[in-house]
Amino acid sequence: MNVNHDKFLSERLYNHFSQFISHADSAKNNLDMNRIDSTSTTKKTKKSMAANSIVPRWKQFLDRALEKYPKATSKRPVS
Amino acid sequence: MKAFQLATIDVEATVVPRARSHIFRSFLNSPTKPGLPLLITSTDVRTPKVHHILANANIESCWWIERTSEQFRITGRVSLVTSPDHQLFKLTRDHLLNNANVDPEGGLAALKPAEFDWEAKRVEIFKSLSAHMKASWCRPAPGSVLEGGQDEAKKWPERVEEPKEGDGEETWKNWETALGNFVLVVIEPIEVDYLTMAVIPNRRFKTTRAVRGGWDEVEVVP
């Protein structure tokens, strides 16, 4: 009886872990798919700029915006 | 006045962000990596932010440019350049060199900071300020209690001019005091979050330093 009970528990545990492993594999596969999707999406939307060649766009935007600042005054904000 | 907000982390009592207005002075570029510009601003060596930065170099600056309806949030690491005569000089220099080591592909490291003449840069920027502005570094420590009230404040120098031969002791003393308290704040941008509200729909781009060097930019929901 004890043996059967142990066997029953073992089977349940085995099934439980099988399901867990199956879910984990599935989750991992989904994650990998998401990564592939993410990478392919990123490839479409991400732009890369080299450090030694061009001025990054954010600096171009900031340079342009700074030109629009009002003229300097002699007053100094708290800092 | 090219003002922006600079947030540091105050770790003295409890971890609290502290923000204040700063004036943008200039960009500083390495000739070898012009795509990694550093931002230069300045402060007084006696302000609490100096200690915030030495304890934690991570900052965020926020710029709102009213005329163009653009916002820039620039996250980065910050270094300080103090007077060589100041007691914090060795600490701030070691901190700056360490920041370059932490980010060996960055714009600060590209400047070869151990060889760069930081004192010449500090003096150059100080000299470019107005005499009225220079005088603000001659006041008692910023944030300290105003002993004597406004009557005392009226005694502070209103202008500090570069002294010439033959100028009096007071002129030399004010110049040395102001220059001694003047600190360059060098920001190495790591991430830039740019938002423009000048177009409909608004547009927003996140630019982050790429692992292999340079920048990666992606458009995000505004």
Q: In words, what does this structure look like?
A:
The complex is a heterodimer of chains A (about 80) and B (about 220). Chain A has about 80 residues and is mostly helical. Chain A has one domain. In chain A, about 70% of the residues lie in helices and about 5% in strands. Chain A has helices spanning about 1-45, 55-65; one strand at about 45-50. The model of chain A is unreliable at about 15-45 (pLDDT under 50). Helices cover about 25% and strands about 35% of the residues of chain B. Chain B has a single domain (about 5-220), classed as Electron Transport, Fmn-binding Protein, Chain A (Pnp Oxidase, Chain A, Roll), CATH 2.30.110. In chain B, strands 1, 2, 3, 4, 5, 6, 7, 8 and 9 form a 9-stranded antiparallel β-sheet that branches. In chain B, β1 (about 5-10) and β2 form a beta hairpin. Classes of the chains: A mainly alpha (about 80), B alpha+beta (about 220). The interface of A and B includes residues 46, 49, 74 and 79 of A.
Strand percentage of chain B, roughly?
Answer: 25-35%
Structural class of chain A: mainly alpha
Largest sheet entry of chain B: 9 strands, antiparallel
The share of residues in helices of chain A is 55-70%
Distance between termini of chain B? 27 Å
Largest sheet of chain A, in brief, is:
none
List low-pLDDT spans of chain A. Answer: 16-43
- Proportion of strand residues of chain A: under 5%
Helical coverage of chain B, percent range = 25-40%
Low-pLDDT sequence parts of chain B: none
Task: Give the terminus-to-terminus CA distance of chain A.
Answer: 80 Å
**Global Rg of chain B:** 19 Å
Note the total helix count of chain B. Answer: 7
Q: Kindly report the name of the CATH homologous superfamily of chain B.
A: Electron Transport, Fmn-binding Protein, Chain A
Tell me the total number of β-strands of chain A. 1
